[in-house]
Design brief:
alpha+beta, Phosphatase 2c, domain 1, six-stranded antiparallel β-sheet, globular, PPM-type_phosphatase-like_dom, protein-serine/threonine phosphatase, metal ion binding, protein phosphatase, PP2C
């Protein structure tokens, strides 16, 4: 076994000696207190100074969580720099079926990642194969602990959560992704989507692979939902699709969702929902401006290019990444997002926003849009005149 670094030793002595509800003095994290009275807006504490996070110098962070038209806030945002050498951990958790799974994971997943990555040593070595295997083990182990914890609850708890995690260094970005949140990078103003949602719906490669995996495990997909219920195919928790699949079938019979004859033909071979992550390695070149990590409450109502353009325009105006994050979250609600919205933005500090020239407008494209609009209006007037005649 490799010798542990001094930083990891300190982390083990401080961070792991507390339970998941404790707050370490070296921890920098943002979370939503679900026990407080419900409000439409749940804001995360922003850290907008390089000195606030010692893991990576020069990077500025912004955070925001807003509660959409949901009964409760089930998201959480966490950013931590302790325990990792030269890297910062940033994560968005998007819960469903309650807040219990998220409440457990916001500390536990970080601990498992730090241990598996040997305090950031594997990240520094840039051995992507070793990193991928370490993160897979960390995610699976955290999920196993969560399932045991949920099963021991005095009352039935079927909560679950997606988790998209970034490990951000000076020149590299590692993403470990489970679920339907998304990471988008801005390279000289061009949006670069780095992750794909784990949903059993659509004809893209990821979705088709998920559908095939679910069917091979003995499950079925109805209208993009596993067993006609859950719409995300990779997540933590969700015990009814893992350790309590047979109980889920019996409950479905009692509720009249399917017949006993149907259940008799079902044979499960594996979990229907899994927590095994997809891991991405992204090089951060000189043209990399910022990274946006957000829950699907944003991406279901705004595409990647629109989000990048909005953030860039905000940063040009005032250079404040926290204000830009808040504006992006509010824009999602302005577009009638029905979901909770959680966003983390990391400005890499490589762009002089104050002196950045405005992007040249595509005059040909704008002219085409104008002519198309005129054509539509003219056609409308012509049709109206025909109907009136």
């Amino acid at each position: 076994m490799a010798l542990l670094s001094q930083q990891l030793q300190r982390f083990l002595l401080t961070g792991l000696s507390h339970d998941s509800s404790s707050k370490s003095s070296v921890r920098t994290s943002i979370s939503i207190d679900n026990n407080k009275s419900r409000t439409l807006c749940c804001s995360a504490i922003a850290i907008d100074a390089p000195s606030s996070l010692a893991g990576v110098s020069g990077i500025r962070w912004g955070y925001k969580s807003l509660q959409g038209l949901r009964d409760e806030m089930e998201d959480d945002v966490v950013v931590r720099s302790d325990g990792l050498e030269g890297f910062t951990f940033a994560a968005v958790f998007d819960g469903h079926g309650g807040f219990s799974a998220v409440n457990f994971l916001r500390d536990e997943l970080f601990k498992e990642c730090v241990l598996s990555l040997q305090g950031g040593l594997l990240l520094s070595k840039k051995d992507i194969s070793a990193i991928r295997e370490a993160l897979r083990k960390a995610f699976v182990k955290a999920d196993s602990k969560l399932l045991t914890w949920l099963e021991a609850m005095p009352e039935e708890d079927e909560s679950g959560s997606t988790a998209t995690v970034m490990f951000l260094g000076n020149d590299s970005l590692i993403i470990s992704h489970v679920g339907d949140s998304c990471v988008v990078l801005s390279r000289s103003g061009k949006a670069e989507v780095l992750t794909d949602p784990h949903r059993p719906y659509g004809s893209n490669k990821i979705s088709l692979n998920e559908i095939r995996r679910i069917r091979e495990a003995g499950g079925w997909v109805v209208n993009g939902r596993i067993c006609g219920d859950i719409s995300v195919s990779r997540a933590f928790g969700d015990i009814r699709y893992k350790t309590k699949k047979n109980e889920m079938l019996k409950k479905g019979v009692e509720e009249g969702r399917w017949s006993e004859k149907f259940v008799s033909r079902i044979q499960f071979n594996d979990d229907l929902v899994i927590a095994s992550p997809e891991v991405y390695n992204v090089a951060l070149s000189s043209d990399t401006e910022f990274v946006v990590l957000a829950s699907d409450g944003l991406w279901d109502y705004m595409n990647s290019s629109e989000a990048i353009d909005l953030v860039r325009n905000q940063l040009r105006q005032h250079g404040d990444v926290q204000l830009a994050t808040e504006a992006l979250a509010q824009a999602a609600l302005d577009r009638r997002s029905q979901d909770n919205v959680s966003i983390v933005i990391a400005d890499l500090g490589r762009t002089d926003w104050q002196n950045l020239p405005l992007q040249k407008q595509n005059l040909f494209y704008e002219m085409f849009q104008a002519l198309a609009t005129i054509g539509i209006v003219t056609a409308g007037i012509w049709m109206s005149s025909l109907l009136a005649a």
